[in-house]
Amino acid sequence: MTDIETIVRDRLCRKLKLAPERATTLDLAEDLAHGFGLSSLDLITLMTSVCADAGVALTDFDVDDLARLKRPADIVALLAARVAA
Amino acid sequence: MSSVINALAVTGGKPEDKFITCFQGGRRHCLSLARLDADAGRLAGRLLRAGLKPGDRVGLLARNGIEWILVDLAAIKAGLVTAGFEWGKFSDSAPLVDRYALDAFYTESAGGSVGPALDLRPMIRDILEAAGDAPSRSAPDVPPPRFYGPGDITTIKFTSGSTGEPKGLAATVGSIASSLNAVQAMFAHGAADNILVFLPLSLLQQRYWVYSALAFGHDVTVAPFELAVGAAQATQPTVIMGVPGFFDGIRRQVESDGDVDDPDARRHGIERYLGRRIRYLWTGSAPAGSALLHFYNDCGVPLYEGYGMNETCIVTKNHPGHVRIGSVGQVLAGKRIRIDSDGVLIVGADWPVNTSYLYAAPGDSGKVFLPTGEVRTGDLARIDDDGFLYILGRSDDMIVLANGRNVHVRAIEEQIARHPDVHQCVLYGSGRPYLVAIISPAAHDLDRGGVLSHIEGVNRTLAKDDRIVRAVFAPEPFSVENGLLTSQFKPRRKEIHKALQAEIDQQYGAFA
């Protein structure tokens, strides 16, 4: 598991108010809105926390980048690409 | 009345040391207000040289960004009338050109056709790419300053109705200037301020804060909704313009981050998202609810609720030294309020927004704009002895049950939404024997039993006919994306009822 994936799992787990030990069992292919029940604002605050932990500025992303985030795995991929760049 | 709009129409004299910062395309665009003003002056000159004439219409279909602001300011300088269309609500620019008789168009859509209208995209690119010094008022490429009277029109705004064609409303210069002057008297925005705007610039009131920056000399930050929190963290605004749904989302995040009982800890939690320089937060457009207001105000982060609508502009506002939680504040200078015999709020103004709609079905204007020049808001309200206004609900939010009993649903819905697992609640029951609650979930692992117990608890405080008999849990939260919330996070009641009609009908069983 990469550092970015750990961050996303941890922050999503907190967002969903789940016990910390469930972080490793979250399905990263699940739909953020329909599966996890996140609103668009929930996604923004989740991304804010994830970006802060990953040391990436949220404003480095275009709105279209954020609009493509449908699953936690998408967040991992977006952040990983930015950190690697 | 000194006109803010006339100050914007003059090119020159804007501060070099105050800035507009726009977050877009993964970049930060930062311009001094003097440079912004100069660029808008140049664009105004090019628009007129391209053949546009004062009074011609300029359409805009774009997300928040520097282009929107440049076109808007240039239109004011050139005497053109803007028509801003909400990005996401309208997708194709060409039909808009025809329907609204547009002479020029700026669309962010790369391949968007603007039909016979003048396409502003190349012109905007040139202006933004050209570096330049602030020109004097007599610079040859800047048009001479226009003078607007209070009855002149600079823009057409569109109502964000949930169904059908949006109604158009031409906004008078007098209504814009008087509202901005009254707000400035209440909040004294000045050199130390930076106002963050992230709601769509197609809403005229969001452009007010750019006008305010240019007229009163303060910084302003503009971002799309998705980057609002990132922009706040990056620019540390002193004022944030948001709807209750935004501030409630921050509240839920702060609560999920940790302890919020201690006021200092809660304030620090809020500052993690909104920055450390907050002087106050502005909200309106939808009810904030006293729990949300207390969450912020009780830890020293003022959240001021106000009231207004497209047809009235800003009417009342809580402001420093004049706050009553639960109210929407006291009336602004230049506005008058009264309650009619049906309990509905009527608003008068020294400088009305207008006296009719520009695009609307026959009869629509007469339902809202009274022969007295006042506006019938449709909101049920009361005014206390000190002039604070309280909104009790929409007159059309009142449900008449099958037994003829009237139920004001708003206060009940707010009580249900206080449960942490409830995102929003909408009640249904018009013409039915009892009320059914439709619950938008706020949590992934929704505690249905807990929510139902909460409803039971609320029921115990209510009269028999006001009680909720059944509840429907929506499969996903109401959102702008699924069409169940407006862009200002207000529930689209008809769409919600339509989407869950079968589940609602089941709740009535033999009564259905």
Task: Lay out the secondary structure.
The complex is a heterodimer of chains A (85) and B (512).
Chain A: H1 3-15, H2 40-54, H3 63-67, H4 72-84
Helix pairs in contact in A: 1-2, 1-4
Chain B: H1 4-9, E1 19-24, E2 27-32, H2 33-49, E3 57-61, H3 66-78, E4 81-85, H4 94-99, E5 104-107, E6 118-119, H5 121-129, E7 153-158, E8 168-172, H6 173-187, E9 194-197, H7 204-216, E10 219-222, H8 228-235, E11 239-242, H9 244-257, H10 263-274, E12 280-283, H11 290-297, E13 303-309, E14 313-317, E15 330-331, E16 335-339, E17 344-349, H12 364-368, E18 375-383, E19 389-394, E20 398-400, E21 406-408, H13 409-416, E22 422-428, E23 435-441, H14 448-459, E24 468-473, H15 493-499, H16 501-508
Parallel strand pairs in B: 1-10, 3-4, 3-5, 4-7, 5-6, 9-10, 9-11, 11-12, 12-13, 23-24
Antiparallel strand pairs in B: 1-2, 7-8, 13-14, 14-15, 16-17, 17-18, 18-19, 20-21, 22-23
Helix pairs in contact in B: 2-3, 2-5, 9-10
Question: How would you describe this structure to a colleague?
Answer:
With 85 residues, chain A is mostly helical. Chain A is built from 4 helices and no strands. Chain A has helices at residues 3-15, 40-54, 63-67, 72-84. Chain A is globular, with a radius of gyration of 12 Å. The model of chain A has no long low-confidence stretch (mean pLDDT 89). Chain B folds into 3 domains: 35-190 and 198-216, Rossmann fold (3-Layer(aba) Sandwich); 309-395, Luciferase, domain 3, CATH 2.30.38; 401-511, GMP Synthetase, Chain A, domain 3 (2-Layer Sandwich). Helices cover 31% and strands 24% of the residues of chain B. Chain B has helices at 4-9, 33-49, 66-78, 94-99, 121-129, 173-187, 204-216, 228-235, 244-257, 263-274, 290-297, 364-368, 409-416, 448-459, 493-499, 501-508; strands at residues 19-24, 27-32, 57-61, 81-85, 104-107, 118-119, 153-158, 168-172, 194-197, 219-222, 239-242, 280-283, 303-309, 313-317, 330-331, 335-339, 344-349, 375-383, 389-394, 398-400, 406-408, 422-428, 435-441, 468-473. In chain B, helix 2 crosses helix 3 and helix 9 packs across helix 10 (263-274).
